[in-house]
Amino acid sequence: MVNIRQKKPVFRMVVAGSLIAALASQTAFAQSTPDARREALRVGPHPGMMPHAGRMFPGRSLAGVPGFPLPTLHTQRAYAPDGTFTSRWTRADALQIKAHSSTSVPAGQNSLPAQLIMPDIPADFPTINPDVWVWDTWTLIDRHANQFSYNGWEVIFCLTADKNAGYGFDDRHTHARIGFFYRRAGIPVSRRPANGGWIYGGLLIPEGAQEQVFAGTTYTLTAEWSGSLRLLDPHDNRVSLFYTDMAFNRDANGQDITPAQAVITQSLGQIHADFRHVWFTGFTTHTALLRPDGVLYQNGEQNPFYNFRDPFTFEDPEHPGVNYMVFEGNTAGQRGTPNCTTEDLGYRPNDPHAETLQQVLDSGAYYQKASIGLAVAENASMSKWKFLSPLISANCVNDQTERPQVYIKNGKYYIFTISHRTTYAAGVDGPDGVYGFVGNGIRSDFQPMNYGSGLVLGNPTDLNQAPGTDYDPNPQQNPRAFQSYSHYVMPGGLVESFIDTVETRRGGTLSPTVKVAIRSDASVVDLRYGNGGLGGYGDIPANRAAINVRAFILDLIGQNIPIRSNTNGQINSFVNTNQ
Q1: What is the enclosing helix (H) or strand (E) of 213?
Q2: Which residues contact 171 (CB under 8 A, 6 or more apart)?
Q3: Which residues does the annotation say bind substrate (predicted)?
Q4: Among residues 224, 328, 402, 432, which one is catalytic?
Q5: Which of 14, 23, 222, 553 has its CA 20 to 30 A from that of 267?
Q6: What angle do CA 502, 508, 512 make, to 5 degrees?
Q7: Is 402 annotated as a binding residue?
């Protein structure tokens, strides 16, 4: 007690001194310029971390970083889905990635915020199948993107290519076919094989059936690219495939004679299952839904390297019964025309770190014109669609916003997409991985997540080093900068992807699943999930079950499997113990 009383005068002096210092600093702050006040409020980045990295969701701050421009202000305001408002992922937004990247890490390390980076995939990863490469992967979903098992089986759909056909992994894209895999539902990771236990079921579409879309045109080969697959009714076995039908017209050296044709296409089929396996029928008729129009979405005449692919369909809870589709596109216009605007740059007025429009145009950044498109179905069968204005543009920022999907959580609308470091425009940079945007409706003034940057889940990357490529890596770059790609965000924040290159080993197989925790406009990688943040390889669980006993019995009969008196009991036991 005596010691405490003796310390009181000292304590009061310290408090008084602190108050005087605080008042003095406030007076000086009030007399400073607006730019100086803004700079004083910022907090510099710690190596490999975002500012205030001790917080669970540090990415909510939009205070910026000294020496960099502030991110664009986005309201998240919702607009009518059929309106003309297009949100922008601006250069000011994308520069926040560089702003929060450390400049002092040793070569080959990760310079990006640790809470936004996928943990390292081991180089001794298992492969899902010895005969096919696997990359873009999606699930059996309903109109609200719930993932379904069917009669006791989980099912996934992947772009596949034959490992034994004489071409290499990097030539797979023109040979891509949609394959499917299945496994018993509800088996925990600890009881599965290391590679996830997925069984290859074969190709989904009968050989050559998709070529009917290109009747009357000239092409030398076709391919099937990514999309989504809708279970039309959880009490039925009818499914609708939406995918990107591709046709190439190439010479003997593999060079394009004419631009590739990309057509968003629908095909209908049926899913079947018995005690032993899963199979599909149908997919013999293919209906062209959308071709780029050159008005809202760039086409091959405007740009031989245009992007138009990856349909993802859903029903908006705010518009019951209306089906929408998001897809990857490019802003319409002739390639190479320097037509970016100050709105595409997105700098706040009088920002001392802003680029001028002329500086950006002089850099050649106008070749990058990614967009996320929107379409609406005009009939209940979803066989007729019309374009709506793009949801997001990335002019002068990036050229690819692949595999977009809509994810709704707590009344917020998230658009997740994937992109490459090598598709960024001059002057902006970011890793291969997932980018996210949040708003209050399908069409919103979307806020890029995490400090306004858009980065949600990147590969470990050193932005201080040149990227190299997955097939010709830069030895100074992080050896896992291309470890995974084609991420797909699932219910509960689980994220699956495929392995591209880990150290010097090429993949073509499913990655470990990771989990992203999301709160409003920020996210973090959940390191409590799995082993240090890495779940099982191909851990793609269903969160809903479709059980159709009548169809199960018909499938047993069709497979000539004997029907015993207790078949109903067997079926119920099978589907219930595998959920």
Answers
A1: none
A2: none
A3: 226, 309-310, 400-402
A4: 402
A5: 553
A6: 65
A7: yes
Q: Which two tokens stand for residue 553?
A: 């019995």
Q: What is the distance between the alpha carbons of residues 379 and 517, in angstroms, rounded to a whole number?
A: 36
φ, ψ dihedrals at 423, nearest 5°? -105, 5
Q: Is 309 a known ligand-binding residue?
A: yes
Q: Is 399 annotated as a binding residue?
A: yes
Please give the Cα distance from 116 to 32 (Å, whole number). Answer: 35
CA 443, CA 393: separation in Å to the nearest integer? 12
Residue with tokens 């095909």: 267
The residues, any chain, with a CB within 8 Å of residue 394's CB and separated by 6 or more, are: 88, 89, 94, 368, 369, 370, 371, 401
DSSP 63: -
Strand 153-162 relative to strand 177-184: parallel, antiparallel, unpaired?
antiparallel
Cα–Cα–Cα angle for 144, 150, 152, nearest 5°? Answer: 130
Q: Nearest-5° angle of CA 256, CA 260, CA 261? A: 155
Told to judge if 136 belongs to the known catalytic residues of this protein, a careful annotator would answer yes
- Give the dihedral sign, CA 146/152/403/468: positive
Structure tokens at 11: 């304590």
Beta strands in 274-411 (DSSP E): 278-290, 309-315, 323-330, 369-377, 385-395, 402-409
Token pair for residue 168? 């290499």
- 494: amino acid identity, one letter: L
Report the C-alpha gap between 263 and 272 in whole angstroms: 28
Strand partners, 490: none
Tell me, rounded to whole angstroms, the distance of Cα 104 from its chain centroid.
Answer: 29
Q: Domain spanning 77-550 has what CATH number?
A: 2.115.10.20
In the numeric block, which tokens belong to residue 362? 């002089």
Cα radius of gyration rounded to whole Å, the chain: 26
Considering the candidates 93, 120, 136, 539, report the single residue annotated as catalytic: 136
Consecutive H or E run containing 93: helix 91-99
Q: Is 27 helix (H, G, I), strand (E, B) or coil?
A: helix
Question: How far is residue 224's CA from residue 218's CA, in Å, rounded to a whole number?
Answer: 17
Amino acid present at 334:
Q
Dihedrals phi, psi of 347, to nearest 5 degrees: -75, 145
pLDDT digit string (tens) for the chain, length 579 residues: 333 333 333 334 333 333 333 333 333 333 444 444 433 333 344 334 444 334 568 888 899 999 999 999 999 999 999 999 999 999 999 999 999 999 999 999 999 999 999 999 999 999 999 999 999 999 999 999 999 999 999 999 999 999 999 999 999 999 999 999 999 999 999 999 999 999 999 999 999 999 999 999 999 999 999 999 999 999 999 999 999 999 999 999 999 999 999 999 999 999 999 999 999 999 999 999 999 999 999 999 999 999 999 999 999 999 999 999 999 999 999 999 999 999 999 999 999 999 999 999 999 999 999 999 999 999 999 999 999 999 999 999 999 999 999 999 999 999 999 999 999 999 999 999 999 999 999 999 999 999 999 999 999 999 999 999 999 999 999 999 999 999 999 999 999 999 999 999 999 999 999 999 999 999 999 999 999 999 999 999 999 999 999 998 998 988 766 655 555 555 566 656 555
